[in-house]
Write a structure and sequence with these properties.
The protein contains eight helices and no strands. The N and C termini lie far apart (45 Å). It has 174 residues and is an all-alpha fold.
Length: 174
């Protein structure tokens, strides 16, 4: 389940800075499988303030994140394959049933958000002749603070650079 700092914190915007402190997460320990995800926690606190217990707006947010990630999948894929193939890859990603869980289960928003921020960083790095290095680094750090699945993103970016012919060639082509 979703790890929350406390019930009171999940309802009070003034508690947002406290979510950055690992002590705010009871049971946070490698021995207990605790997770430190302050950015995801902050999104749940903000949702609680905006929507209360209503599920529909939260699911709509998840759907919007999913559509944005599908768009980023398209942008990333078109760097490596023709546009029609990139379109079909993104469409398959968008409509595949395995992604239903991250759309309809609010607690899985961290996955969508980490994918959105991390893929944005990868796309910016690979598309730009002069990538915004500090922006990409900041996006990477935020994605890791959303969910640990974002850790390999720099490796993906490096492999993408190699697949596109290395940094110098990629930068010259654009």
């Amino acid at each position: 389940g979703m790890l929350t700092a406390s019930r009171a914190a999940s309802r009070d915007l003034r508690s947002l800075p406290k979510l950055l402190v690992p002590r705010a997460y009871p049971g946070l320990s490698p021995n207990f499988g605790g997770m430190y995800r302050p950015v995801a926690q902050a999104s749940y606190v903000i949702d609680q303030q905006m929507w209360g217990a209503r599920r529909l707006p939260r699911r709509a947010e998840n759907l919007l994140f999913h559509l944005f990630v599908a768009h980023l999948v398209f942008r990333l894929a078109r760097l490596f394959v023709p546009v029609p193939a990139a379109f079909w890859a993104a469409l398959l990603f968008a409509l595949h049933p395995v992604n239903g869980e991250v759309i309809f289960t609010v607690a899985y928003r961290a996955t969508q958000m980490a994918a959105a921020v991390g893929l944005w960083a990868a796309v910016k790095w690979l598309e730009s002749p002069k990538p915004p290095v500090w922006g990409v680094l900041a996006a990477y750090l935020v994605s890791v603070m959303l969910k640990e699945i974002a850790v390999p993103i720099p490796a993906i970016m490096g492999l993408g650079d190699l697949a596109l012919g290395g940094w110098a060639l990629v930068r010259e082509r654009r």
